[in-house]
């Protein structure tokens, strides 16, 4: 949903920043790589030690690179398969770091195996959501459906984790914050699973339709070849 309603707004908002980087001679690939490294550092340094608020601020400072690099490529007329591939691949590293950081905290200092398990489920299911779309496109089909796309999951977990971080600053080890984090992760895990099912059903419909078309064409071809010729 956020991909549809917010991407255009933020793309326009970040256009001056993209133009500035272009004037500095920085390539879109550099922005992609630096942005991913920033997200990973923020998630794997701050989250495991329970610094959710500062970690979220740090991550947010880099997460918009996902829009800036594409904006730069369009301005430069360099949109390419390589850029799209690099961006999508590094996105997986960033997402894994965010949920992985939460797993590390709740499995250790947070001492809450249930929440750690939910964070791990979100990490795994998020990867499956992305793979289900990539595999469909590799087979010549589309899977642009789902109630929990990457942007939705990313915004939800960062906002909630940042708010929990504020609560922890006020009161160390905020129990309410743990409940909020746990419920959010549980909802995201369920929605991610539903998204995978939606994409599987969409691809199944396309595959069966294509098979039906091929079978009908084969049947017509067989019928025509068996029809006696007219002199």
Can you walk through the features of this model?
The protein has 231 residues and is mostly helical. The protein has a single domain (2-215), classed as Up-down Bundle (Four Helix Bundle (Hemerythrin (Met), subunit A)). It is 82% helix and 0% strand. The chain has 9 helices and no strands. The radius of gyration is 23 Å and the shape is flat. The mean pLDDT is 87.
List the helices and strands and how they pair.
Blueprint: H1 2-5, H2 7-23, H3 28-46, H4 52-63, H5 65-76, H6 81-107, H7 113-138, H8 150-170, H9 175-226
User: Tell me about the biggest sheet?
Assistant: none
Number of helices: 9
Query: How many structurally independent domains?
Result: 1
Which shape, going by the Cα principal axes?
Answer: flat
**Strand fraction:** under 5%
CATH class, please? Mainly Alpha
Task: Report, as a whole number of angstroms, the end-to-end distance.
Answer: 62 Å
Summarize the entry for a quick read.
The chain has 231 residues and is mostly helical. 82% of the residues lie in helices and 0% in strands. The longest helix is centred in the C-terminal third of the chain and has 52 residues, at 175-226.
Features:
Four Helix Bundle (Hemerythrin (Met), subunit A); 9 helices; 231 residues; mainly alpha; 82% helix; flat
């Amino acid at each position: 949903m956020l991909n549809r309603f917010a991407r255009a707004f933020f793309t326009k908002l970040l256009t001056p920043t993209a133009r500035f980087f272009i004037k500095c001679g920085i390539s879109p690939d550099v922005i992609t790589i630096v942005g991913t490294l920033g997200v990973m550092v923020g998630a794997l340094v701050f989250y495991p030690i329970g610094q959710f608020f500062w970690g979220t601020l740090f991550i947010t400072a880099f997460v918009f690179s996902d829009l800036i690099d594409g904006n730069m490529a369009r301005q430069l007329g360099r949109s390419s398969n390589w850029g799209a591939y690099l961006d999508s691949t590094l996105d997986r590293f960033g997402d894994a770091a965010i949920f992985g950081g939460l797993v590390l905290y709740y499995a250790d200092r947070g001492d809450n195996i249930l929440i750690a398990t939910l964070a791990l489920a979100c990490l795994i299911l998020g990867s499956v959501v992305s793979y289900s779309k990539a595999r469909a496109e590799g087979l010549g089909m589309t899977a642009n459906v789902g109630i929990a796309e990457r942007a939705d999951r990313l915004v939800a977990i960062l906002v909630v984790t940042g708010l929990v971080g504020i609560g922890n600053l006020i009161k160390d080890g905020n129990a309410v914050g743990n409940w909020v984090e746990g419920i959010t992760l549980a909802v995201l895990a369920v929605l991610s699973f539903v998204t995978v099912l939606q994409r599987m059903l969409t691809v199944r419909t396309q595959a069966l339709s294509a098979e039906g078309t091929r079978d009908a064409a084969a049947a017509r071809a067989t019928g025509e070849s068996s029809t006696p010729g007219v002199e």
